[in-house]
Write a structure and sequence with these properties.
Layout: E1 3-10, H1 16-33, E2 37-44, E3 49-56, H2 59-68, H3 73-80, E4 84-92
Antiparallel strand pairs: 1-3, 1-4, 2-3
Length: 98
């Protein structure tokens, strides 16, 4: 069953361009290096907050990705643009997989 990672974070206004510029390389690094990565959506919220919705083939794939951390340049650049993490949750996609 598809696992969904929900990470809400803050980005300083002066880092928004860096975050958006790093996103394509981060996704490419995930596709190349993270077994079970399916896709991701980045949502801009009010007040400098963002929500990253990442889908994984399984909870095990997500756990293995977390162990790797920012091990590739694109991932590291994206993470570096984040000021602070507000919340991080994991769930299972309900109502059919995408």
């Amino acid at each position: 069953m598809t696992t969904v990672e929900l990470t809400r974070f803050r980005v300083r206004p002066e880092q928004v361009d860096a975050l958006l510029a790093a996103r394509p390389a981060m996704l490419a690094d995930f596709r190349a290096d993270r077994a079970g990565f399916l896709d991701a959506d980045l949502v801009r919220l009010p007040d400098g907050e963002w929500l990253d919705v990442v889908r994984w083939r399984s909870a095990e794939d997500f756990a293995a990705s977390r162990v790797k951390g920012a091990n590739r340049p694109g991932i590291a650049a994206f993470f570096a643009a984040i000021d602070s993490v507000v919340s991080a949750e994991e769930g299972t996609l309900a109502g059919g997989d995408r």
